[in-house]
Design goal:
By secondary structure, this protein is an alpha/beta fold. The protein folds into two domains: 258 residues, Rossmann fold (3-Layer(aba) Sandwich), CATH 3.40.50; 73 residues, no CATH class. Helix content is 33%, strand content 14%. Helix 4 links the parallel strand 5 and strand 6. Helix 2 runs parallel beside helix 10, helix 3 packs across helix 4 and helix 7 crosses helix 8.
Length: 343
């Protein structure tokens, strides 16, 4: 059953003063939402995805979990299960009657000790393993993968790799996915994006130091301080750790753009045309527009994963979160097929 795109998927009106993509991108990160999950039952769970590797999830189960749809949330670069949008979607989805699992990618959310590897944009097998376990051990049969940014790429890649082989996968919704990491890294390194680039590179270096301390001898930190771009970091550390020939090889192979045509479940891609480092031109791929299972929602405004809307009496400011929960809910209600594309 295809998820219904209500008119709100077509109509995003940014909050006053947030037509600027920089403000739209940065402001939500300072919007404290830690209290949203207060009173909602939480259970931590480790999923073994490879030998010696576990990823941590925080599960919010409904009383009769097998009777409900399940949303598996995947965060973006240098995020975690505690990212504001993870709390926002989880709280709304749980109160709407869904099971929700806030996942941490490898090494994220204080889990560096759970794997001898780094995380990267190509590790979709981790989330295929999570879906498989939930389906075949827990008996859940309507699982949605939802991802932001880097997590969105992982979700799309997992869905494409599954094809129609995993009947428990009901669909996928992604926000500002980096479907072509090479283009996104290039955009991120543009001078106008220096503040985002500096933020991500600084955090990646800090994580690298923590990992090296936990696994002595595995990585050399010599010259780490002299790395000035995220692409150089990925060439030296991420690609090598992930078994890629180079940073360029990693960026090429990790992109979900290669498998979008194989997606066989209802999928919504949400991106903003003014996203500062997810180039909108990437979404002109024939695989997106020719695959009848994929819908593209591309408002002009929204920044990178911001989508803070003007005041409404009926819901909060976080437009994308609200539409995600609404669309999954309507898919379970048997609503009609959505229009092919919204902009």
């Amino acid at each position: 059953m295809m998820p219904t795109m209500e008119p709100d998927w077509r109509i995003f009106t940014p909050a006053a003063l947030l037509h600027n993509s920089y403000l739209m991108t940065v402001l939500p990160g300072y919007w404290s939402r830690r209290a949203l999950l207060a009173g909602i039952p939480t259970e931590s769970r480790l999923f073994t995805t490879e030998p010696q590797t576990q990823v941590l999830g925080f599960c919010h189960w409904q009383t009769a979990r097998t009777d409900c749809q399940t949303i598996v949330l995947v965060h973006g670069l240098e995020g975690s299960s505690e990212s504001h949008y993870m709390h926002g979607i989880a709280a709304k989805a749980y109160r709407a009657g869904f099971n929700v699992i806030r996942m941490n990618q490898r090494t994220c959310g204080g889990t560096e000790h759970l794997t001898p590897t780094l995380y990267n944009s190509g590790l979709s097998q981790d989330f295929r393993a999570v879906v498989h376990e939930l389906a075949h051990m827990d008996g859940l049969d309507r699982i949605w993968l939802v991802g932001y940014s880097m997590g969105g790429n992982l979700v799309l890649k997992a869905a494409g790799e599954f094809g129609s082989s995993e009947t428990a996968l009901a669909g996928a919704i992604v926000v500002c996915p980096n479907i072509d990491p090479a283009q996104c890294a290039k955009a991120l390194e543009e001078p106008r994006n220096w503040i985002y680039h500096y933020h991500f590179l600084t955090k990646l270096k800090s994580r690298m130091r923590r990992k090296a301390a936990l696994f002595p001898g595995k990585w050399s930190l010599t010259g780490l301080d002299r790395i000035r771009t995220i692409s150089d970091f990925d060439d030296r550390y991420t690609a090598q750790d992930g078994g890629y020939a180079s940073g360029a090889d990693y960026y090429n192979l990790a992109g979900s753009r290669h498998v979008l045509g194989k997606i066989a479940v209802p999928t919504i891609i949400v991106t903003a045309q003014d996203d500062p480092f997810i180039p909108y031109s990437m979404f002109s791929l024939p695989a997106i527009h020719q695959n009848q299972n994929i819908q593209l929602a591309a408002p002009y405004y929204g920044g990178h994963c911001g989508f803070v809307q003007q005041y409404r009496q009926d819901e909060d400011r976080f437009w994308a979160e609200n539409r995600i929960v609404e669309s999954i809910g309507l898919s379970g209600a048997g609503a009609a097929r959505p229009p092919r594309q919204t902009r």
